[in-house]
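Invent a record, attention on tokens:
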Amino acid sequence: MIDDFYKELLTKPRAKQVVPSNDKIAGWALKVVYLLYPEHSTMALESLSDLKQHVADLQNELANILSTGAHADAVTGHDIAAEFFEQLPLLYATLNTDIQAIYDGDPAAQSEFEVIRTYPGFYAICFYRIAHILYNFNVAFIPRILTEHAHSKTGIDIHPAAKIGEYFHIDHGTGIVIGETCVIGNYVKLYQGVTLGALSVRKGLSGVKRHPDVEDRVIIYSGATILGGNTVIGHDSVIGGNVWLTNSVAPYSTVYHIPKITIQKVTQQ
């Protein structure tokens, strides 16, 4: 019996190409984050030439990852790596808006340094934004590996295909889910436990718009669940905690539910 099981494992089709380990891929992305935000790093770069060499090393590392099997041939891998690093200034500028949004939006934040070093929301956003660039280059597997790494570290699940604007603020973060076809505008703030999900998970809906749109300057409080590809949260709206929402709301709306809370008096013995 056990021999039959082992034989089944042995005869399983092997991948024609080996995808680098998740740790190696996540490690490369973390080095990119450290490059942009040396507040994380203990590595000292003494000169501009040192910095340029470090960037070149990271670009080659990405090219090797892409060429090892996760995407395509070596030429394509080097081309994509070069295009990724051409976008590095834009990535940096966008992440800086996220830092500013988190710092401005949380009275507990004492400095940008604290946001960079300690906020799980910023960690997850970093990995999402790196993954999203690679996703737009049609890179297979790696974008999802990156966002799932951040998911495992922070409890924040952002699909790399989701489109998220600037000044994105995740507060606390644990339990947040942002689905594949979500579109989120600028200056949006999400609290822990928010789900931007699909009404149905039928396999036939693959590739169909099934997650909500959230327009600019929307705040969604903890535990809210917003579902459906036709659901649009109008700009400047506030969605209260634990709201269940499957319909669109107009701009400047405030949505909340009134829970019934019962307090029972306990009689002392």
Summary: The longest helix spans residues 48-70. The chain is about 45% helix and 10% strand.
